[in-house]
């Protein structure tokens, strides 16, 4: 039995990356963008209070995720949604409270993410999701995901707002990059681990651009659907898809789970 098969029961993240994974990921990133805005502006919590409360909630979900013994779709994806919200808030705090330019925060988060991957690979020898069967590797995984969300928020806002492309053009641009990555993987045998993480990084600004496009008012280049309505629709979609994954287990192969 190979190492991945032997340890697969200990892996608490999706093992098989299906289309469902990417759809939920984009939905979650959109909710991170619109959900943060809803809490800050619609509920009038303000950025500091929202950041503090959501960080505490995230720590609670991360603790539960790391302590659980098996892959649990609802817990995993709730954690992803919370990481998405907190990642958005980190960038918002840098931009709105500290006045850090989006060019600087985009470059800084790119560097921090690169260092995270380097430390992870140096320590564990692989960035493959099939190797995440220890708490240490899982913590590296979640740290990388947090920085991808913060980076994606900064990069999305940079293109849409600072560069002036607008939300729709930015979404199309990021979608085109993902299409190139997909073609590279299937047609030109791009390394699977590299393709996964590149796509994971780019789906964040894609989701952020979609969220802003749907929720922002027409005067700001959006469609005016509002943060509440956009967040609610996308959360319902996430719940439906995660429920399907919980019942079908299509992202956790039965043959591997039952291996002895």
Automatic annotation (TrEMBL):
Name of the protein in its database record: Membrane-anchored protein
Q: Locate the transmembrane regions by residue number.
A: 9-28, 40-62, 74-92, 98-119, 139-159, 165-186, 193-211, 223-247
Protein's UniProt keywords contain Transmembrane helix: yes
What Pfam families does the record tag this protein with? Answer: DUF347
Species the sequence originates in = Thiothrix litoralis
Coiled-coil features, chain-numbered ranges? none
The protein's UniProt keywords, in alphabetical order, are: Membrane, Transmembrane, Transmembrane helix
Instruction: Name the InterPro entries on file.
Output: DUF347
